[in-house]
From TrEMBL:
Upper taxonomic lineage: Bacteria, Pseudomonadati, Pseudomonadota, Gammaproteobacteria, Alteromonadales
Boundaries of every YgjP-like metallopeptidase domain copy: 23-233
Family annotation (InterPro entries): UTP_pyrophosphatase-like, YgjP-like_metallopeptidase
Cited Pfam families: YgjP-like
Descriptive protein name: M48 family metallopeptidase
Length: 243
């Protein structure tokens, strides 16, 4: 039997294992992954046509298995989070090591958080895995947008960008050109994150909230009033933190 190779087909991906001894094609769905066993001679096109005809059954099996995982009592505030304002389902599992991974083969974007059996403070560890994931998403978005806006605003890049959870601010900027952003922004719509970025970059020129400062903000983010209103009204809903 040849080593399986990951294949992609429409809604799901599968591992194909071919064998000389095998006479028929078979599918196995286990732990939400699909393996297809096939005789050496069957053409891939023929195989995929047959797989597509079975795709309702395959996706039903995958869903059933994810529900098995999902019915565990969820240790965080919710069993889904918002990532850039889009819902993402959370699954909690175990593995040989602690990790997060985005699960394919799901009807909606899904993040699986796995703990190794040795972890004592499970809730804290699930939470820190979730934060690690959100941190990575937000950091790469902010880095990209800061670069773009610095070019537009003819502003030199900040000296550093840090992301933490803050209770009372969305971002900050100091004399050393160090910017911070609130990790909770990872759940906000990208346009709102853009507003916070423009706001902090405008502070590189004006370290105050003067008329000149707001003029600079509005030049590069004209709808800044709607954005501040959104943060005031919706900001508190962004928290996934278990207190
Ligand atoms: Zn400010």
């Amino acid at each position: 039997m040849t080593a399986g190779q990951l294949q992609e087909l429409g809604l799901f991906e599968y591992t194909l294992k071919r064998s000389r001894r095998r006479k028929t094609v078979a599918i196995k769905v286990q732990q939400q992954s699909v393996t297809v066993y096939a005789p050496v001679g069957v053409a891939k096109q023929e195989l995929e046509g047959w797989l597509l005809s079975k795709s309702d059954w395959i996706t039903a099996q995958i869903q059933k298995q994810s529900q098995l995982l999902d019915t565990r009592q969820y240790p965080l505030k919710d069993n889904s989070i918002l990532v850039f304002a889009q819902p993402m389902a959370l699954l909690y599992g175990t593995n040989s090591r602690c990790e997060w991974r985005q699960v394919k083969n799901q009807p909606q974007p899904t993040l699986q958080l796995n703990l190794s059996g040795r972890v004592k403070h499970k809730q804290a560890m699930y939470q820190s895995l979730l934060e690690e994931f959100l941190h990575e998403q937000l950091e790469s978005y902010i880095e990209m947008r800061v670069n773009e806006y610095c070019i537009k605003m003819a502003e030199a890049l900040p000296s550093s960008i840090r992301i933490h959870i803050y209770k009372r601010r969305w971002g900050s900027c100091n004399r050393r050109r160090e910017l911070t952003f609130n990790l909770l922004l990872a759940s906000a719509p990208p346009t709102i994150i853009d507003y916070v970025i423009v706001h902090e970059l405008a502070h590189l020129k004006y370290l105050n909230h003067s008329t000149a400062f707001w003029q600079r903000v509005s030049e590069f983010y004209p709808e800044y009033k709607q954005a501040t209103k959104w943060l005031k009204e919706q900001g508190a809903s962004l928290s996934w933190v278990v207190e």
